[in-house]
Amino acid sequence: MLPTITVDDEKCGDPLSCRKCLLICQTHVLGLGTSVGVKKYRETDPQYFVVRGVRFDKCTGCMDCVEVCPNNAIQVSFSEGGAR
Ligand code: SF4
Ligand code: SF4
Can you say whether residue 28 is alpha, beta or left, with left for phi > 0 and alpha for psi between -120 and 50 degrees? Predict the structure, then answer.
């Protein structure tokens, strides 16, 4: 079953500097993207970076990302038909 992974972008204010969830996830489920169009990485304003679930099928449900987040910004849940 695939998880539903939600990230509150208001709470996750500076993912580029934090990255705790990205680093702790052993199976690299989470990824860093931008909320704006495609730009070169170095040209994108840091405020537009966001954390998103990417490889949902690799999520073990360990909840390490939820626990490590200092801002309580991530929720991971598994429910029937709840992928994404
Ligand atoms: S619950 Fe575990 S496996 Fe799933 S995204 Fe979070 S850290 Fe990764
Ligand atoms: S750990 Fe929380 S605050 Fe840090 S990048 Fe991940 S979601 Fe954002």
Answer: left
Residue 48 to residue 43: CA distance in whole angstroms: 11
Q: What's the gap in Å between 10 CA and the centre of ligand 2?
A: 11
Contacts of 25 (CB under 8 A, 6+ apart): 64, 65
All structural domains of the chain: 4-77 (3.30.70.20)
- With a 6 Å cutoff on the Cβ, whether 77 touches ligand 1 is no
User: What number does the ligand 1 atom closest to the CA of 63 have?
Assistant: 1
What pTM, to 2 d.p., does this model score? 0.88
pLDDT tens per residue, the chain (84 residues)?
A: 899 999 999 999 999 999 999 999 999 999 998 877 666 656 777 888 999 999 999 999 999 999 999 999 999 999 875 444
